[in-house]
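haha ok so turns out i had the wrong file open the whole time. this is the CORRECT one, sorry everyone. sequence first:
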Amino acid sequence: MDNKIKLYREQKGLSQGGLADLCQVSRQTINAIENNKYDPSLQLAFDIAFHLNVTMEEVFKPIREND
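then structure:
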């Protein structure tokens, strides 16, 4: 899953640790999601979008094998 977390996070002036604290996860989790090394749970994806004040569709985009 591709994402724009870093873009929206930086626009809000949040560090990875700051967003992690808001979402109640570790900074390493946010880092792994930003670097496409980990796909968040549905709840975490909603939490990230909520705290970034954007929709899930704005933040996350599925990567399709056939595209």
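The radius of gyration is 11 Å.
again sry for the mixup
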